[in-house]
Amino acid sequence: MAAGTTVDHLTETYRAHYRSLLGLAALLLDDTASCEDVVQEAFIRVHSARNRVREPEKTLAYLRQTVVNLSRSALRRRILGLKLLSKPMPDMASAEEGAYDLLERDALIKAMRGLQRRQREVLSLRYFADMTEAQVAETLGISLGSVKAYGSRGIAALRVAMEATT
């Protein structure tokens, strides 16, 4: 007799212990299909490595350990899948929203062109270049009070112009 577990011994083990191995997998996993897959895979792996199981009486122990390992792997794959699925999809604007945004932007640009030069400069630097009022004053060479006055008047004029377009 050759060293290792024979195919006949493995077949007998399958007949005698399939249900108990299925029960073991059921304790670790939650659905019948996965349990059956794990037990079948365990028998396939032990069959492929049967020459390494030198003592046939240890075949069942190898099968049990293989069922446990495969069950753990199945659970890890599920957890990873859940982690990947639970990430929210990034919000994407619909075509209508994009068109509406484009119209709003065009109306804003048109309204900005209708402002006085200093108001347009102050608002552009303050809100589009993201500068502080002090930085705008330094850039334009005007006082901080003038920046506040031009900004306030410019926003009021923009509000009137944007309400007229809607």
Automatic annotation (TrEMBL):
Sequence ranges assigned to domain RNA polymerase sigma-70 region in this UniProt record: 14-78
UniProt-recorded name of the protein: SigE family RNA polymerase sigma factor
Keywords of the record: DNA-binding, Sigma factor, Transcription, Transcription regulation
Keyword Lyase (UniProt): no
Family named by the database record: Belongs to the sigma-70 factor family. ECF subfamily.
CDD domains: Sigma70_r4
Statement: the UniProt record of this protein carries the keyword Cell division: no
Start and end residues of each RNA polymerase sigma factor 70 region 4 type domain: 106-158
Upper classification of the organism: Bacteria, Bacillati, Actinomycetota, Actinomycetes, Kitasatosporales
InterPro entries for this protein: RNA_pol_sigma-70-like, RNA_pol_sigma-70_dom, RNA_pol_sigma-E_actinobac, RNA_pol_sigma70_r2, RNA_pol_sigma70_r4_t2, RNA_pol_sigma_r2, RNA_pol_sigma_r3/r4-like, WH-like_DNA-bd_sf
Highest taxon listed in the record's lineage: Bacteria
